[in-house]
Amino acid sequence: PVLAESLVVFTIVLCVHAVVWDRYSWCAVALTIQAFYVQFKWDRLLQLGGAVFQFRAAANSGLLPASLVIPLLGIAMKERCRSAGIVYFERFGIVVASTGMLVALFLSVIAVGVTKPVPTNTCILTGIAGSVIIYTMKHSLTVSEVIEVLEVLLIFVYLSMILLYLLPRCFTPGEALLVLGGISFVLNQLIKRSLNTVEGRGDPMDFFLLVAVVGVVLLGLFFTVLFIFMDSGTWISSLFFHMMTAVLGLGVIMPWLYRLIQRNPLFWLLQFLFQTQTRVYLLVYWTFLAASACGVVFYQNTKRSSESKKHQASTITRKYFHFIVVATYVPGLIYDRQLLYVAAVLCLAVFVFLEYVRYFTIKPFGQALRHLLSLFLDERDSGPLILTHIYLLLGMSLPVWLFPRSCAPKGTLSGAGALVPYSGVLAVGVGDTIASVFGSTMGEIKWPGTKKTVEGTMTAIFAQIIAVALILIFDSSVNLNSSYAWILASVGLVSLLEAYTTQIDNLLLPLYLQIMFMM
């Protein structure tokens, strides 16, 4: 399975650079080969228990697929913005690609450094890949851009040491690279924009995303350290938790956001949410769907009897939430993507806050959340945090958040790029859901070395093609310009990746599909 997963990722890399081959292509190929070799060193460390931190069991390291996501996203953004003539965001894409390569290289060096005996061939490959990447960065980046890349790397190092120690068994090395690398980049961007803020410059939605992500992370770090010294399950601790959340929100996060958007954040948010009648209808509809999702949770828990405490929700039951999420995102993508952008940020903040309440057993809802959500745990929730529902939200939202709006003057990209915001809907909402449902109920022929079935994968590809046709019918802004072969190849490769990967597919698949669509 690891070899097949690596082959699919290498094929995606070649497809991306078949469209555009430049100096960064050599870096991407060198990083791919190097990550392939280092991945086996990480897998060996995990099997022998020699890794520095405790990583998620029942999965390989996932270093190769995770190492290429951020660099390929940066390269795709660079090409799109170069075609549109937007120099600022073209340079931003180069910084993103360089940052992703350097962070992935750093994680590889750690694996090589702690492996005993020292793997000579892997060290040589890592040295060659590092030399190619650093040489390219030297001739591509300005001094300020190099400093920015190094700042992100420094933040990543400190975040990794803190969060991987505090949250054992929550991530694989690849998932840690993606999640912590993304948080590090967001934090650096927020600091940079806060120091260079200019009134009226920048999109308030982008600032809202940056502040929300950094705010919930800082909130979690603060309470994690605090509850080392006090019992979080008492009423006094719970009251202190809610008070400090209000203080940090109103006293730190709100003023920070006010400085960036130069207006009252609450008034801006209320005005934004209720600006048009369409937005009011969408909010009412989404409220109904949220209530339906809560109803599914309560109904499944009522079926749990005292004799079946170990009963877990079936795969099909868990996929109900995928259908609800698709029903949530598709109308937002068609009618109001800006509202969907902001609503997804709010939903992420709420999800993370509720996870803090559950994790710290904050009264009055902490124990109830633990009981209700324990029914939906699977092997990927082996650590102290339950992250699968947050990954589902991120997988659906990241294509919306990362859509290069500034490089698409008409609000959409041409060709397959028009489907970029739908990457999460197609890969997770349709493809992964259909593959799981049909594979578990009717699948008989298994892919070698996995539990996934050929029937499930083929059905997923077919379902995504039908979904693309429906998008063409209902969304008039989508114009594929005869790029059907590329779309079919993209959907097929990502579906194969879903069949072989042991990483969090809700997070990985939409990003790879977005990369393919952006080329």
UniProtKB/TrEMBL annotation:
Protein species of origin: Crotophaga sulcirostris
Keyword terms, alphabetized: Endoplasmic reticulum, Kinase, Membrane, Transferase, Transmembrane, Transmembrane helix
InterPro entries linked: Polypren_kinase (IPR032974)
Transmembrane segments: 7-37, 57-76, 88-112, 118-137, 149-167, 207-229, 236-258, 278-299, 320-335, 341-361, 382-402, 422-442, 454-474, 486-513
One GO term of the biological process aspect: dolichyl monophosphate biosynthetic process
GO cellular component, one term: endoplasmic reticulum membrane
EC numbers on record: 2.7.1.108
Coiled coil: none
Membrane topology: Multi-pass membrane protein
Major enzyme class: transferase
Similarity remark: Belongs to the polyprenol kinase family.
Keyword Mitochondrion: no
Main localization category: endoplasmic reticulum
A GO MF term: dolichol kinase activity
PANTHER family: DOLICHOL KINASE, TRANSMEMBRANE PROTEIN 15-RELATED
Stated name of the protein: dolichol kinase
Localization terms from the record: Endoplasmic reticulum membrane
